[in-house]
Amino acid sequence: MIYNKLAETMTRREMRDLQLDRLKKTVKYAYKEVPFYQKKFDSIGLKPSDIKTLKDIEKIPFTVKSDLRDNYPYGLSAVPMDKIVRIHASSGTSGKPTVVLYTKNDIETWSECVARLAVAAGCTEKDIVQVCFGYGLFTGGFGLHYGLEKLNAAVVPASSGNSERQIMLMKDFGTTALVSTPSYALYLGELAERLGYTKSDFKLRTGLFGSEASTPEMMKLIEEKLGLHPTNNYGLSEIIGPGVSGDCLEDCGMHINEDHFYPEIIDGETEEIKGEGEYGELVLTALTKEGMPILRYKTRDVTRLFYEPCKCGRTTTRMDRIKGRSDDMLIIRGVNVFPSQIESVLMAMGEVAGHYEIIVKRENFMDILEVCVELKDASLLENYANLDLLRQKIRHNLKTVLQIDTIVKLVEPLTLKRYEGKAKRVTDLR
Amino acid sequence: MTVSQIAVFLENKKGRLSEMTKVLGNAGVDLIALTIADTKEFGIVRFITKDNEKVLSLLKENGYTATRTELLGVEVSDVPGGLHDVLRLLGDGGIEIEYLYSFARTYLKKAVILFKVGDNQKALKILKDGGAALIDNIFE
To answer: Helix (H, G, I), strand (E, B), or coil: what is residue A121?
Structure first.
């Protein structure tokens, strides 16, 4: 099923024409209505009329998160407040949050984009969808909610928290689709097991997971525990919220709603443009935003793009699952390490549970990477040698992938912190 | 002809053992024997109760990684050399002992020794042939 055939299956040429037309308009609009962009353009002598081809987008300076913070709260608004119908803000880890503003049309675009990705993931109007994202300033809850309502699905706004109740609702309401972060889905699966449920107690069919990076191994675990088909979707509040892209059932990358969001991949350091299939930082331009236009936003998310049409019938560009955030990347003794690499190794091992913590320390000028993981396989308790062998095995598997040595700590089940929203797996003490 | 024991994985952190014993105490579990082996980071607590199955599910419900293992139980006279007589049998028979623990029944002038060996069947035969008093019920 395809929600918007016209938008999702047009030819590449049609799409590029549409994107160029919208790009020109949005650049003119941003220049005219947002002093921040006018100043940015003027400082390098760039005029909106210089944007004549899609490639000309490369002339536009990047927008970064601190630009949003510096213009807190309404500095990047392109319309008077009477046109704004919603204000969201992202959790600022340092200082002020970043604020995003929506007009009625923006909310409409957002819902449309979410409805598209929900359909791509296999949802229909028959689904009962439990949204376990926080409803509030965070865009996850409301974003999915309105998109799924637009699809005419039955939405259960369960919000986050109170996990035992989530499981009760899931069972009693006959929830067929689950919306959450992948780590929370895994936790719910674990808790359901602990409470004595099996996946046949639930009617779950589809999982719409987002707001943090996941690995195929983690998705497989979720599938095993909850008996649903897990899909990823992607978005960020600075651009619109969830709805930028989402998996179809072919599992070959997330389809970008390209008529609204123009993607580029750049080298995180040199800012050079990367080619198809090459990993780099995702840069997004919102092509149709009214409340707060945003041009060439550096997402810090690392992924790659594929342009060929998909077996599902969609012709939109696909982005690979997020490999990590360029600011998540740890440099350990000079080696680049993404937490997602560690996750892949651990999730592939049945002896340990799906939760982990990474601690980076510096001792005697040496970086030390410590990985804490929960022991699950009770049969190893026969003797110590087994536990030691397991630690060596984890260390070895990590070394194969990361090329560096790690310290592996086995901890008791359910003692590592569980997260209802985005999981925080890394503590860097350096 | 073996004695069941429960083994629980615990982190070597303040208060972890007492959290577990609280769970057991609240459920009215009577511990017959208990031993702890520890390393810097974690330990394995091993103990015997009357209803191991019930205790095992209780521990699992409370989120512990726990399992049941089978030990060999031998009753010896509580006199000097009592332990040695049994160990000699096993040593001569080429049986490796992973660990053992024991408790005395002073009122009977007996002691019970519990062994974890690699090959239970072989060890059982050696002990039997050597005339050791094998037991599978330590509650009598």
So the answer is: coil
